Each structure stands twice: as structure tokens, then as C-alpha cells.
Q: What sequence folds into this?
């Protein structure tokens, strides 16, 4: 399933962010999360995923799955974007979103804290630089347990 979803999203100039297939209260759900590539060297100025992108990928993935995969049970297909408060998983994600606010939970203390919040000011080698207006913190990539963009109004 993952290779089909990757193939379809790439054909539309998008990338596969996540894929889950699991049983939920409504039955089996195939959840595909798509994203627009944003190269760090361009400042991440890619476009945002639209409802039309989700609809197109949904139709195409559904058609390919119907033709190539046999399921033992019915399922619901959901296609969406990572959202405004998207998780950041790799250094390239942090570089893509320099200037945006982030919340980071660390696996080891950074300046005595396991939670860092502020604006991503840079990615310096393998270190994420976060500024909160008063303090600049340097978070090693290896210390990041979870990170998520903050929604800014």
C-alpha cells in the first residue's frame, strides 16, 4: 500500500507524509497524509496541500488499490494534509520552517529543560536553534523526542 500511495502522490508533485492502516471504531481505515515538498534551500516556500489535492490523490489511490490489491474486508480511505500544527520529524523539516514557532519535547534536558518552545531561528549543522524572545536554546537533533509547529494567528 505504501508504494502505491508514494507513487500516486509523487505523480501529482506531492510527497507521502504518513500512511496508517488500522481498525478503528468505524471499521478499517486507510489514512494517507500528503504534503507538498519544500526544499530547505528555497526557504520551504512550497505550496500548501489543498482540498483538491486530497480529492485527486484519494480518487487515484482508490483506483489503483481497486485494480492491484485485494482486501479481506471493507475499509474507509482518508486523505489529508499534516495540518497547521504538523509534526516535525527531520532536520530538513526544521530548516523548511525556519521563522515559525515550534514546541519541542526532548529526550534529555536542554539547558535543564525537557520542553522547549519558541521560534526556529536556524538549523546549524545537526542543531536546531530556538529563540523565545529572551533566550536562545540550541537543541541537538539527537535530543528531539517530539516536535510540532505551533499555530500562529
A:
Amino acid at each position: 500500500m505504501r508504494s502505491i500511495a508514494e507513487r500516486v502522490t509523487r505523480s501529482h508533485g506531492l510527497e507521502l507524509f504518513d500512511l496508517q492502516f488500522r481498525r478503528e471504531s468505524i471499521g478499517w481505515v486507510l489514512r494517507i497524509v500528503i504534503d507538498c515538498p519544500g526544499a530547505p534551500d528555497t526557504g520551504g516556500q512550497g505550496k500548501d496541500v489543498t482540498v483538491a489535492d486530497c480529492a485527486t490523490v484519494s480518487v487515484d489511490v482508490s483506483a489503483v488499490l481497486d485494480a492491484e490489491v485485494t482486501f479481506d474486508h471493507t475499509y474507509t480511505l482518508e486523505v489529508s494534509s499534516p495540518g497547521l500544527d504538523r509534526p516535525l520529524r527531520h532536520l530538513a523539516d526544521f530548516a523548511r520552517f525556519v521563522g515559525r514557532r515550534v514546541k519541542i519535547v526532548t529526550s534529555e534536558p536542554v539547558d535543564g529543560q525537557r520542553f522547549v518552545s519558541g521560534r526556529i531561528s536556524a538549523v546549524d549543522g545537526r542543531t536546531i536553534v530556538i529563540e523565545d524572545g529572551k533566550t536562545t536554546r540550541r537543541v541537538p537533533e539527537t535530543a528531539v523526542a517530539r516536535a510540532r509547529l505551533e499555530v500562529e494567528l
Summary: The longest strand covers residues 113-124.
